[in-house]
Design brief:
By secondary structure, the chain is mainly β. 9% of the residues lie in helices and 50% in strands. The strands form 8 sheets. Strands 1, 3, 4, 7, 8, 9, 11 and 14 form an 8-stranded mixed sheet that branches.
């Protein structure tokens, strides 16, 4: 007999733990031959007192051990056996996704097909199995009842594409348990992401740059299979690096229209293709009405003021009117710092008004800086010298102010600009938080980026870099942190 156990009984033991079993037989002449095995683990018999034969076995169990047998052979009584069963407990392992009869980590299906995925886990006792979808939502759960769980999508859609995770745990599990991942690829024609509207109307002023942006939804298609083509009223547009700048990377494509004129207003289309099909999406570029200016000071204005005021007040108003005329007639303005000249240069580059400096630019000049001998007149800028230097003074601008941190509300239209000092002309690049180039401008001192409907996905750090022929490494940098409420 096996000490402590009835014949045919079951012993529960955790995998990798040790088990000790003893079997003995007494009497008989000559003594019996005694042997005990647990599958391929053999014991060595020991004779005691010349009347008893004892065998002992100690093994580190694994899931392949299922039975231990003690066997006695004698020339008179023949062969006798007694045994115990081993129930080896172990944590979940070899978790895997199956579809049909095949296991895999990647499944490609067509839109509208019925899809059944199965998650299997080897475990003793039975595990608790959970399947979570690409949005980290629990879609299927089986508690300690079986080794597998199935999930069926009757009519798979593009929104079902993504990563699915199966996890298995039992009473022996510490931590998160065993995992398996499945990438579900749904072959669908391209469609816009949640941040892209199918038909978009965009308004813009004359002589500014506008960016039309399309971001496709990620269906986990093969890399670089998404392609874009832009049209203006069904006429193909080419990336000429001057009027039109087209940049496409991954699932996003940008069309930059520079220095807008009346002929640029109208309808634009982008045709998006992937390995399964194509779709067309539309934009309409409309003229934006300029802001209404305040009422100018005229004689009639002064007359209305005089009617309702005292003589002294009227005298002050008249004096202010003549002073205004005097300041308007000044044709030359001394600039007291290079920073002031940058403001005017930036205005000319943005508006295209190179023949005359607008009056509102003069109002931004700060008189607190010391004189450096540079002069500006209404015909342009005159500087005391023309020297070559590497890019410097790189900065992000919002409106006419330099910023390093910008807070905006969701769905607002956002325009920010990057500018730099240079000589000779340089290349300016703006990269988003994913380190993707979203704007590249050559031979310019400033670049403008427009997000027509800002979303939470646009939040993050933007980097502007500037280089010219004198630059050795990465060039001058400026960073902007965009916070979207």
């Amino acid at each position: 007999m096996i000490a402590g156990y009835r014949n045919g009984s079951t012993i529960q033991v955790v995998e990798t733990e040790s088990v000790e079993l003893t079997c003995s037989v007494t009497g008989g002449k000559p003594l019996a031959t005694l042997r005990m095995t647990c599958l391929n683990s053999n014991s060595t018999p020991t004779v005691t007192k010349e009347t008893t034969v004892t065998v002992y076995i100690a093994l580190q169990v694994n899931r392949n051990h299922s039975q231990c047998i003690c066997e006695s052979d004698h020339i008179i009584s023949g062969t006798q056996k007694t045994y115990v069963m081993l129930d080896v407990l172990f944590q979940p392992r070899e978790v895997r996704f199956n579809f049909g009869m095949e296991a895999g980590e990647r499944l490609i299906v067509n839109q509208n097909e019925e899809v059944t995925i199965q998650c299997f886990a080897e475990s003793n006792p039975h595990p608790d199995i959970v399947i979570r979808n690409q949005r980290d939502e629990q879609i299927k759960m089986m508690e300690y009842a079986t080794h597998d769980v199935k999930h069926t999508i009757p009519k798979v859609s593009c929104a079902d594409a993504g990563e699915y995770v199966c996890s298995a745990r039992n009473m022996l599990t510490n931590g998160q348990g065993a995992l398996s991942r499945l990438i579900l690829i749904v072959r669908c024609p391209p469609s816009p992401s949640a941040d892209t509207v199918k038909e978009t109307k965009i308004t813009a002023l004359l002589h500014v740059d506008v960016t039309l942006q399309f971001l496709a939804q990620d269906f986990f298609d093969e890399r670089n299979k998404t392609a874009f083509a832009w049209y203006k009223q069904k006429v193909p547009l080419q990336n000429d690096g001057n009027k039109y700048i087209i940049s496409s990377y991954g699932l996003q494509s940008n069309l930059i229209i520079r220095n807008i004129t009346y002929s640029d207003y109208g309808k634009y289309q982008v045709v998006v293709r992937n390995s399964f099909g194509h779709n067309t999406y539309y934009y309409e570029l409309l003229e934006k009405a300029p802001q209404q200016s305040t009422e100018p000071v005229t004689a009639s204005t002064l007359l209305r003021v005089a009617v309702g005021t005292s003589s002294f007040t009227f005298f002050v108003v008249v004096l202010a009117f003549f002073y205004w005329i005097y300041t308007r007639r000044k044709r030359t303005l001394k600039i007291k710092d290079r920073k002031t000249a940058e403001v005017i240069t930036e205005y000319q580059a943005t508006t295209g008004h190179n023949d005359n400096v607008a009056e509102n630019v003069y109002e931004q000049i700060d008189e607190q800086y010391t004189a450096r001998g540079a002069y500006i007149d209404m015909q342009g800028i005159k500087t005391d010298k023309d020297t070559n230097f590497q890019p410097r003074g790189v900065r992000f601008n919002f409106g006419m102010k330099a910023v390093e941190r910008l807070v905006v509300n969701q769905n607002e239209e956002l325009t920010f600009q990057c500018s730099a000092e240079f000589n000779p002309p340089l290349d300016i690049v703006i990269r988003n938080k994913r380190d993707e180039e979203i704007i590249v401008m050559k031979n310019t001192s400033s670049v403008q980026h427009i997000i027509h409907r800002v979303s939470c996905a646009d939040a993050g750090e933007y980097v502007c870099s500037a280089r010219n022929m004198l630059t050795n490494e990465q060039g001058a940098l400026s960073k902007l942190v965009l916070i979207v409420r």
